[in-house]
User: Fold these one by one.
Assistant:
Number 1:
Amino acid sequence: MTTAVKPRKKQIEQVATNLFKTKGYSATSMRDIAASVGIEAASIYSHINSKEEILHSICFRMANEFLTSINEVLNANDSIIEKFRKTVVAHVDIITGDVAASAVFWNEWRHLSEPALSEFIAMQRQYENTFKSIIEQGVNEGLFEVPSVSFAVMAMLSSLNGIQKWRNYTLPPNELNTAFADIFIKGLLK
Amino acid sequence: MTTAVKPRKKQIEQVATNLFKTKGYSATSMRDIAASVGIEAASIYSHINSKEEILHSICFRMANEFLTSINEVLNANDSIIEKFRKTVVAHVDIITGDVAASAVFWNEWRHLSEPALSEFIAMQRQYENTFKSIIEQGVNEGLFEVPSVSFAVMAMLSSLNGIQKWRNYTLPPNELNTAFADIFIKGLLK
DNA sequence: CCTACCGATCGGTAGG
DNA sequence: CCTACCGATCGGTAGG
């Protein structure tokens, strides 16, 4: 029986992700990460170049996942309500699929330095704007009624992204995604 | 014309709150705070005992505000929908009333050490449970329909608490509070 | 409120 | 992947 050995680099990133989530990026030292992996701090640098490189990798991987997912939904041939539902479900699935990485993505990106910081913020805005265009279309079709489209997007995203702070999921992931879709579709309907 | 001079201690706390919000508690040094106030780092200690004391003060002040507010609503003689509405409005008002302190309350409390940490978590739970009891009563009266009361509370609170991360309010505070109440009442109604 | 300073810890490097 | 170590910075104190 062979044991699947996780490549060190992946292991370091995973351990770091969990520590970044629990303690925060700044409060997590390279020695914390090394100790969790079971090696010396200096040895980490055989696999990665800096602490920020790990943060960069997590933040941009998640940002790409979110953007890829919303673009797929956008290109499908669905009603606007269905597009909205699919976007919410996909967003929740990405979060529950990797809660630790989502927490880092949402809470620790501010510790990126330029130019990565600006790039990351631009990706965030792009995602928000795509989501906004979906709600906007729902309003234009007379299906949704909102006091402000920006408000609706931000209220939604804050709610979904908050999952990573929950002490428990309250519902299993495959019910959580549709529960979110339902509550917000109802909330936005005219 | 006399200029109202802010007592040093209050000034230090306010400056620290803003820095904790922007950079995070761990990444904010006493020297950062001192520089923003315009004094030397060592001079801070004439007014406060430790960095954590500032965090403690912010977190517990906000926790008490939230708990006081929800208990007032609970004791009023209103319909359950009205209680729900008032709770949401009050919650949003507290956040928009001090966004920086709310951000610290929501994002930095994990850096408290025991026994304050456990006390703080208990207060959070108490608030969530009170909110939960309001929704539960709405369900019992046949007004609300939710897949899980815990889910509804957490989805709500995540959404409201997310305000502190918004790049802009999307709506002025006196419309934001009722917009939140409306969207979630609609979302929870049977 | 300042100067001067403490021990601890940080991210990271040299060299093997 | 390790030992040994670097300069910088941390929260905080002594003493005025």
Note: Chain A has a mean pLDDT of 96.
Number 2:
Amino acid sequence: MTKPKQVTIVEVAEAAGVSIATVSNVLNRGGIRSSKETIRKVELAAEQLGYRRNTMAAGLSRNKTYEIGLIIPAMAGYYGQLAEHLQIEAHHAGYHLSVFSSGGFDPDIERRHLEVLLQRRVDGLICHGLAMGFETTRSIVNSGTPLVLINGWGWPEDIATGAVNLGFAGACLQSVKVLADHGCETICYLGSKRSKVIDEQRLIGFDAGMAQFGGGVSQEIVDTMGLDIEAYLRDLMQRHAKSVGVVAFDDHVALRVLSAANKMNIDIPGRLKLIGINNDYIAKESYPGISSWDIPYNDQAQMAINKLMHKIGNKAESGEDREIEVPLTFIERGTTKLQ
Amino acid sequence: MTKPKQVTIVEVAEAAGVSIATVSNVLNRGGIRSSKETIRKVELAAEQLGYRRNTMAAGLSRNKTYEIGLIIPAMAGYYGQLAEHLQIEAHHAGYHLSVFSSGGFDPDIERRHLEVLLQRRVDGLICHGLAMGFETTRSIVNSGTPLVLINGWGWPEDIATGAVNLGFAGACLQSVKVLADHGCETICYLGSKRSKVIDEQRLIGFDAGMAQFGGGVSQEIVDTMGLDIEAYLRDLMQRHAKSVGVVAFDDHVALRVLSAANKMNIDIPGRLKLIGINNDYIAKESYPGISSWDIPYNDQAQMAINKLMHKIGNKAESGEDREIEVPLTFIERGTTKLQ
DNA sequence: CTGTTAGCGCGTTCAG
DNA sequence: CTGAACGCGCTAACAG
């Protein structure tokens, strides 16, 4: 199956009895400056011959692809959701978004995808928290292709055009407040070093929250990597007779805690109060429902695409900050309050 | 920011003091037939100038893109996982996979993505259960681009080169057997009409299972669209004094059932036994763990890519069937058996 | 082994 | 409003 030769504008031009320039104008430039009659003829011919524009030729010729590349650590959960929204927003802006997963923060795969996208001459790049270091990234993206970061804090301006970050710190800070207000005598943060930068942000918020609202409340910081949640919980409950609060890295971790607690018959939210992040569907559908922080996917996607468009169109940055912070919204459910 | 002109092989050729053909040979054709010295010179020049091959020009020239497109209904859950594995397998085969989501079985978005991919002249297409009809699909994919379906049953040969399908029917059939063996007096299938074709497959298996193993066992078939699970469960338990079995559409639905049961203090697996499909992480991490069917992502991805490669390379179909069935594996957990 | 040349399909002048 | 001609960056013969 050698690729069957596809029909080109030349053939359409012949069939319609006009020149290729005319065909190009009618088909790919919104029918500017052409007589109704010509337009009809061309469109008919194209339709009948099954003409389909060759993106490569077009891109090559005008030095613009109308494609933007997205690299995320994985397809699951938050990343995948964001990808969907970005795809939609990109489409609204007249661009197409190609999605690549770096298979869970693998720097090598990440580099490979980046390289491929640049070889494609994408007009822009959106990346979620690059696993590569600054230097490596710089040496790769020095081509002048605009790069917008998602959840990337403190990147140098010569690499990233800007960043759109979720307000994890604020969410964690407020989580501590909620738990403290509910009378927890100790508050634990169950982190995940796998997502380094995000974990850091959450810790910043947690620490700030403890400093601000944690008077007389003890604290603990634990990483879930290889942690036996059940054992940890048992130990925790033994050490504290009254109410314990847990801020989980995300709803995934929260579910594990919840399940362990259910198994051990720990009273929720009486003895144990729990807050997750992401507002995954599991948060809504577990029992009890997990209090969590909802992510405004739409906003984040819109802002990211806008930022990119500004840069691509060389428009002024419209006075926005280089790093935008998008706040999350608390959704309270059964793990922190009685119905 | 007009795109800064990128360096081309012409410039590399000049810098290295050779012809562009030589540069092309060295850089993009695996160093075929070139003196060590020339290779060194060219590579050095390319390195220093920061040369990056232009995929569009290459693809245009050789009429081959080494890109394959994937369209899935969504990024979440099974689809996203599969996409990751497909990406890896595609890479092993020397291809790149661009992923597009049709935003939940939206035929319009699906068509748009398909169109874009064909305009890119991808070498192959992988689609998960197209929402479009046969006719529409045919009119779009008649370009001779090989198309492999994932979970597509009974598609005409002139459209799809082949299909790699998960053995949902077999899994449901066996689920019924398991529940019947465990002494359930009634067995319910909680479906989801949203995923039409998949729901059909599951029902086929369920029906076959009831016919084969359901002697003396009553059955019920319900759709979860807009269903009040808690109310349904209450009703179900009232109508049946002994053990009730539920085959859920997937682990997502299973979790909702599980949560409702936990809330109502229904004994699991004593009074209610539950089996999901997909073996999502929620199945492992809920309490009790949800018995489910594990999906061999690797196998399915490998087979899909192989099928596509065979067709692209015009190799014989190696005697394989056009529709391949990949079996699932039962993972038993707390919702069907006591620890 | 290396250089020359002719396209790949389309966008864009610039005369008519 | 139309048509001929050139160029985008690269590959694939074919000569040398």
Note: Chain A touches chain B through 64 residues (CB under 8 Å).
Number 3:
Amino acid sequence: MKKGNTRDVILHTASELFQRQGYHGTGLNQIIEKSGAPKGSLYYHFPNGKEEIAIEAIKLMGQHILESAREDLSEKDTAIEAFQHHVAKIADVFDGKACVDGLQIGLIASEMASSHESIRLVCKSAYEDWQALYTECLQRFDFETERAKELAVVINSLLEGASILAQTNESGWPLRAVAKQLPALLVH
Amino acid sequence: MKKGNTRDVILHTASELFQRQGYHGTGLNQIIEKSGAPKGSLYYHFPNGKEEIAIEAIKLMGQHILESAREDLSEKDTAIEAFQHHVAKIADVFDGKACVDGLQIGLIASEMASSHESIRLVCKSAYEDWQALYTECLQRFDFETERAKELAVVINSLLEGASILAQTNESGWPLRAVAKQLPALLVH
DNA sequence: GTCTATAAGTAGATAGAC
DNA sequence: GTCTATCTACTTATAGAC
């Protein structure tokens, strides 16, 4: 977990807490406490305070999710199998009651959309990156460009929504229900 | 807006604020201020404080969404048209920058899932009600029971997720992208 | 049923020593 | 780069008058 410098430790802990408890639900003191980072150094590394930590944390989450998605999607031979594999991996995370590491910016995105423009834009950018990856993957499996783009939005929605249901049900089954219906959606 | 008694005014205002700013992002003072309700009466009507207000507010949102969904879904002659109509109505809400009235418990559901069991259960119950309605509608259009139940979960996920994207983009287009792909999903 | 005042705690943020 | 102490503002919640 520790990457050596204090900044990364703070950011990693903040990512974890923000995505589970949200922006307002997570205190700076809690981040300090859980990370074990020295309290005094927080405003040294992030002079703009909580908002700056949140922005950097969201960028980190975005990249993390992008990487694991890219990995999942490259391991299969059809679009259906690829996305089903991706969804199944996410479903597994919600079964264990362990921390939901690196999944989901939906909570903070909803929370801040109407109040913090800068955070809204970072979230928007993360979603665009994921959709670009999905689009690219669908094109590789011979989906026409426009349809691929639209399906990417739909898949993105599906994953965000099913993740909320999974949290609410404390189980990955909503994601598995989604995986099961993917073949109907992904017809040429 | 005012339904006569103070309790309902508080609840209505709380619903609005909770779904836009979340639980931790909304202060009791803000609810009082915005509702114009007398401050002293808050703990008279809700002796258990903020958590009780949240639980009742979520129930209210759940019923409100259920009713408008029932209305939307009963106006068309095919499953595809019915759900497309429903999604289109939601999309329109996100275009105007007005308050998102009565839509979406996803934010508060994510926020509280890991910390307040009682709130998590109320959200779970609301989702189950909506899915039951979707299932019923799909069965009416000759979908087999098991498939109808699974599609209901998928549609629920789709709506929750696309609503987050709509907020993040300040536009209803993600919901319209979903509507456009519904015919592929809803094949017998 | 409503109102005022206030308790008790915690939030984010800052200043200055080291 | 880190630590400690502290400031101000705000939070939920309560007590007691009306």
Note: The interface with chain B takes residues 20-25, 104, 106-107, 109-111, 113-115, 120, 123-124, 127, 150-151, 153-154, 156-162, 164-165, 167-170, 174, 177-178, 180-181, 184-185, 187 of chain A (CB under 8 Å).
Number 4:
Amino acid sequence: MRTHTCGELRSSDVNSDATVCGWVNTFRDQGKGLVFIDIRDRTGLTQAVFDQEDCEAEVMELARSLRREDVVQIGGRVDPREGGKNPKLDTGEIEIRGTALKVFSRSNNPPILPDDHEASKIAEDVRLRHRYIDLRRPTMQRTLQMRHDLSTLTREYFHNLGFLEVETPLLIKSTPEGARDFIVPSRVYPGKWYALPQSPQIFKQILMIAGCDRYMQICKCLRDEDPRADRQAEFTQIDLEMSFVDRDEIIKIMTGFVRRVFKQLLGLDLGQIPKIPWQLALDKWGADRPDMRFELHLQDISEIVAKTDFKVFQSALAKDRGVVKAIRIPQSADKLSRKIIDQLQETAKLHGAGGLPWTKVTENGFEGGIAKFIEGVTDELSAALEVEPGDTILMGCDEWLKACESLGQVRLHAARHLELIDTTAWKALWVVDFPMFRWSEDKQRWLSEHHPFTAPIPEDIHKLESDPGAVVSAGYDIILNGSEIGGGSIRIHDTEVQNTVFRVLGLEEEDMREKFGFLLDALSQGAPPHGGVAFGLDRLVMLLMSTDNIRDVIAFPKTQNGADLMTEAPGPVDDEQLDELKVQCTEPVATE
RNA sequence: GGGGCGGUAGCUCAAUUGGUUAGAGUACCGGCCUGUCGAGCCGGUGGUUGCGGGUUCGAGUCCCGUCCGCCUCGCCA
């Protein structure tokens, strides 16, 4: 049907005959006898020209009738461009002198045009509603290509290392812990339900117990939680698991993978990827996924300000693990207006802090904000923070974790405002030594920091029940530019340890059997030491394509209400379908 | 579930204090034009101002409710 794609003709093809197929990108009708058609496919754009000197009258007439997004086949001789080259196009040195034209189909007046320049202006819901046009845009095509390249590279990389690709089921059993499940009613067992997998976690562990040794899968995961700019309810993971490995062996292989991805797809060398303990990440950057593209480290000033009688500091320090932390923002006093500081204060409060004590450094010491409360320790504080006139000092004081996290958020927002983030930099790291559990005030029980199958480090196993909060897990996350792109852990391969963890999480013996009996059975039938990782494929593509919108890297994404605007899912079903499933609605279906 | 922003022609936007027939660009339709490439020039079609109430002599504009989209908190082991 075609001899060439729309992106490949060059001056070396001049004088040969070519036939291309694609969409009419634009038309420029110069009058009865001359019309230019830019024809587009996935690979690019080629100009065709129909001149009445060359072609028959019917062809000429048909060419003049072409409109944007009509689908056509154009045949003719490849010529150097008569009217001058177009340096903006890869095919800009040539044109096809059209002599044959076939219209495959006509397009109604397109609601949007597949034009990258226009796309940023068009409301996203319109793009989603007409996704088949939006996806025609060069950027979207490049994104689909990038996603494909990443998947291909992933399979190749891991298959070469002996990983076996195994599919795991989509209709599975609902398990407690973690996100809300999407559930599917069973027709055969009325009143019983399948869940869609939040991840293949348990299956990949069972594959290890089954002797699979190394498993990989690019799989869909589903979590019925509200989406965000970088999060969809339905997303894709690169899922991996290995037997007979320790943490550092896994990290080594995965580091190789990530470096290969960025080397091969962007030509970037991420270099060595350091391992940072969780506690240090929070202490220094105020986040468990630190963005290390800029400095602004958090510093502990508890000991110094303890000497003041500032009530705010004193009451924070009186708390269990209470601290006062500070960040020094060099030469920012004139850029951080009162209004901006107020905004940063809101950020701090939003993330749990009571406020954001601040002061500025002048030739005369600290001025503004809480300056008068720290007069007594001016010299000591100045020396510790190595301040210079023009600096701004922002502080956080609370229980350690809250103080670090809220000030960490302030750090990010301040850096964005002051444009301190080197957007050309690529900073990756592994965060390791997470705590095993996190106390939930809400639920009044321990929650898994990672998931309930994560192993504690061996030397902490004895503390599981006596001091859960102090147990360090064998988990690890990989962070790139402040974004979590993957994470995993060494898993528990011992039934007793797994039982103990379930107990700490507040699962009753009976519950355990009911919910996880099959896993406990499997663990008791010879389980190898094993561990693995899951990478967020969507987030990797976001980084590779430099977008902060996850919907831009998914062909058919959903909105914040979980709707697909193109197909209008979710939709109603027939009463017969519900009857068959023995399912009833307690609320009438909302109408518009 | 909470907070913020938004919804006017197919698309992007405008419309004074509540006041005449809701405008412009673009797309689309028609005409002109033989070297354009974000083509150009002339003319034209196109509107339930998201939806439903209310206030008013009069509502795109004010009030109430509701739906939808985006950002965000909660949530996301």
Note: Chain A has a mean pLDDT of 94.
